[in-house]
Write a sequence for this structure.
């Protein structure tokens, strides 16, 4: 069986630079599929770096920002129990406690009394909402710049169509994953 020729790219990226040597060692692997999988994985890791950098620019960890985002997405009054937040973000209660203590010390969240008198939900403060909004605006501006420098509007629409088809197929096979970013740091 002939070794499949690696896909060419307009510009040499890190995957294209290494693909030929990988494929030589894996002759039964489709070079186009391997290249696409590698690129999607690398882009996901690079977007994680972007989130981490923007979080740091705004005095947050990526995990802090995820907690603020979860509270913001909860809608008015922007509150949730620590248990609900830890489950939503896929972190331990200890990790969530550390995050909430840090966010509380910074004045970004506050404890509130629950109607059941047992749980102690936390609520996003006005300062927390402002910090979340600033970080989110910075992130979206940087992402817009990255996408518009690399793709035309038509290419972006086509990319979204293709990624949507691939995501639907993966979800059919493996189920859905979290609907939002869940950073790995505390």
């Amino acid at each position: 069986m002939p070794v499949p020729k690696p896909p060419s790219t307009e510009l040499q990226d890190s995957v294209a630079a290494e693909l030929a040597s990988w494929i030589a060692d894996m002759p039964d692997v489709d070079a186009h599929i391997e290249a696409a999988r590698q690129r999607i994985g690398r882009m996901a890791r690079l977007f994680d770096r972007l989130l981490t950098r923007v979080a740091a620019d705004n005095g947050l960890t990526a995990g802090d920002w995820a907690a603020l985002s979860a509270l913001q997405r909860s809608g008015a009054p922007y509150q949730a129990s620590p248990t609900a937040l830890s489950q939503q973000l896929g972190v331990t209660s200890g990790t969530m406690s550390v995050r909430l203590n840090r966010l509380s010390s910074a004045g970004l969240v506050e404890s509130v009394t629950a109607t059941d008198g047992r749980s102690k939900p936390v609520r996003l403060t006005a300062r927390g909402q402002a910090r979340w909004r600033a970080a989110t605006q910075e992130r979206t501006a940087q992402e817009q710049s990255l996408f518009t420098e690399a793709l035309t509007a038509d290419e972006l629409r086509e990319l979204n169509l293709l990624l949507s088809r691939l995501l639907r197929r993966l979800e059919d096979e493996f189920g859905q994953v979290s609907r939002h970013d869940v950073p790995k740091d505390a």
Observations:
- The two ends are 48 Å apart (CA to CA).
- The mean pLDDT is 89.
